[in-house]
Amino acid sequence: MHQEDELWLAFGTGKSFRYLAAHEMAACLGQEKARALPMFHVLTGCDTVSSFSGHGKKTVWAIWAVYPDMTEALLKLSAASKVIPEDVMHIIERLVILLYDTTSSCMDINKARRKLFARKEQCAADPTNKGIKSGAKPWCHHHSCLHQPAGAGRRMQKACKRRFGRHYLRQEGMCEGLQVQNGCT
User: Fold this and answer.
1) 99 with 58, same domain?
2) What range does the domain containing 141 cover?
3) Which of 8, 99, 104, 130 has the most crowded CB, counting CB atoms within 10 A?
4) 73, 66 in Cβ contact below 8 A?
5) Other CB atoms within 10 Å distance of the CB of residue 152
6) Residue 6 domain-assigned?
7) Contacts of 125 by beta carbon, 8 Å cutoff, 6+ apart
8) Could you tell me if 166 and 87 lie in one domain?
9) Mean pLDDT by 10 residues, the chain (185 residues)
10) Number of folded domains in the chain?
């Protein structure tokens, strides 16, 4: 776009309808970042590409603000090439690493995944007596539900609620994904 060109976009409906000055937004971004923006949209999720699990465009945008190498990588990606250059791939991997762990110094995505997995497992393992008991409650309940005759589920559920408390089965997400069997959850 030339400096004297203006582009206005109609946005919204009803009372929230307004015009947005796209030319002002492009000027604020700068020429390089504005040219890299379509590839940013493709990388972070658009109509045909999935987004990063649990992370939206705002999070990736914040990382892009402190990781300027990303601009050049997105510009290289937008060039019509069938092969992604190795240096660009390393920059994208680093972006993904920072997206899931902002304190990581890893440059290899596989090493970062292993470290994140190990950290998650370490945090999940609570060596205290309280942690062991809370972890065992849902499993004990689920096991006892599997060996009850049909119709015994409600009685068992009420007994477990009295014994272990109101949220006995939802402690630390231990039983996510368990299916109901004979009225047990």
Assistant:
1) yes
2) 129-173
3) 99
4) no
5) 16
6) no
7) 131
8) no
9) 79 94 88 89 72 75 88 88 86 86 82 80 52 41 42 52 47 38 40
10) 2
Structure tokens at 113: 């995944």
What are the structure tokens assigned to 46, written together? 């658009």
What predicted TM-score, i.e. pTM, was given to this entire model?
A: 0.54
Please tell me whether residues 99 and 114 are part of one structural domain: yes
Helix H, strand E, coil C: the string for the chain is CCCCCCCEEEECCHHHCEEEEHHHHHHHHCHHHHHHHHHHHHHHCCCCCCCCCCCCHHHHHHHHHHCCHHHHHHHHHHCCCCCCCHHHHHHHHHHHHHHHCCCCCCCCHHHHHHHHHHHHHHHHCCCCHHHHHHHHHHHHHHHHHHCCCCCCHHHHHHHHHHHHCCCCCCHHHCCCCCCCECCEC
